Amino acid sequence: MPSLLGSIFGMTCPKCRRGDLFPTSSFGFDKPFMQYEHCPECGNSYFPEPGFYYGAMFISYIGSAFFSMGFVMLLHWVFGWSTLASFLALLVVAGLFFVWWFRFSRSVYFHLVSKYHPEVTKAVDAGELHVPTPEATSRN
């Protein structure tokens, strides 16, 4: 059985933990905000209602705020960098991880509000579910 943390960090469907949430890599920067409408493995809807991912914005905001404070304090107080150099390093790191953090926040939120169904995972693994290949859309 797939683990919860493996599914969150792997950005897979919270229902079956097999299908990808996003059609492209987080570090490829190719269509960074494109997301499947449905799970390619079990058909679970990734947009159950309008505005579903507003909760992910709170996770993103809180997580990035704490990370930013800790990162700048570490560079400034522990490594003795200047305040300006610490903030510039933060901008570089935030720029590199922006798409990953956006997607990770959606994955965390979706897993918090959705229930895992091990019987669906077993059906997907056995090849009993036949879901047509979903089209990727640029829904945010």
What keyword list fits this structure?
two-stranded antiparallel sheet, mainly alpha, 140 residues, transmembrane helix, 3% strand
TL;DR of this structure?
The protein is an all-alpha fold.
How would you sum up this structure, described in words?
The protein is an all-alpha fold and 140 residues long. The protein has one domain. Helices cover 51% and strands 3% of the residues. A two-stranded antiparallel ribbon has the order 1-2. Helix 2 runs antiparallel to helix 3. The longest helix has 31 residues. The mean pLDDT is 91. This is DUF983 domain-containing protein. Keywords: Membrane, Transmembrane, Transmembrane helix. InterPro entries: DUF983 (IPR009325). It holds the Pfam family DUF983.
Described by strand count, sense and barrel closure, the largest sheet is: 2 strands, antiparallel
How much helical structure, as a percent, in the residues?
A: 40-55%
Number of domains: 1
Strand order in the largest sheet: 1-2
**Structural class category:** mainly alpha
Poorly predicted sequence stretches spanning 5 or more consecutive residues: none
Task: Determine the strand fraction and express it as a percent band.
Answer: under 5%
What integer is the average pLDDT? 91
* Distance separating the two termini: 30 Å
Query: How many helical elements?
Result: 4
